[in-house]
Description:
Elements: E1 11-14, E2 21-24, H1 29-41, H2 44-58, H3 71-86, E3 89-95, E4 103-109, E5 114-116, E6 124-126, E7 132-135, H4 140-148, H5 155-165, E8 167-171, E9 176-178, H6 184-192, H7 196-207, E10 211-219, E11 226-232
Antiparallel strand pairs: 1-2, 3-4, 5-10, 6-7, 7-8, 8-9, 10-11
Helix pairs in contact: 1-2, 2-3, 2-4, 4-5, 5-6
Amino acid sequence: MPLPKIATPTYELVLPSSGETVKYRPFLVKEEKLLLVALQSQNQKQITTAVKNVIKECVMTRGVKVDTLPTFDIEYLFLNIRGKSVGEELEVNLVCPDDGATEVKKKIGLHEILVLIDDENNDTIDIDGDLKLKLKFPSLDEFIKSNFETGDDDTIEASFDLIASCIDKIYNDEEIWEGKDSSKKELREFIDQLSSKQFKEIEKFFETMPKLSYTTKIINPKTKVESEVTLEGLASFFA
């Protein structure tokens, strides 16, 4: 006689990037083991890959392509999946800014961690008044490649490759050049033609991307100085 199947609850959340409602379930023991092995390895690429694979298993809504979701959607999804799986409170060690050394433990409710949307984020860059460049948010795969698969000597090149991969299209009133139809070499050559001012607008797009954010005040037990600390990005909450 086969053993009984255990019913798993499902939940819903709204993706910050699109407003789409997605159904998901908590991760199971078999998936938690994948995460624990990755965390014990302390290998950032392995950890991020494990996060992505767990999300693929836990997202119940058909048609959601995890590989192409923006990084902040992935982070928000994982944070909520984890909350329903092992508890909706995190304990983190925060370093006091006044001395840069003393650590203070802080408990954070997952409902307090929000996706911060910057009103200054602009995905369309004016090249010359007629020609425009439209950018898209990097996917998790692109984020992994640029952050975890290159050495220190390749940091600049990886950054330019990331920008090239995030070009959605280049267009004017008469023509549209889709980024997906262009080679990486062609996109890199286009970027190389930009002025410093135009390139700074692209950098601003990435700097002001939506991100997980939590701000709190802590008191240094040694100096009694109160400081404000902000955590941003998924890694900050699991460091």
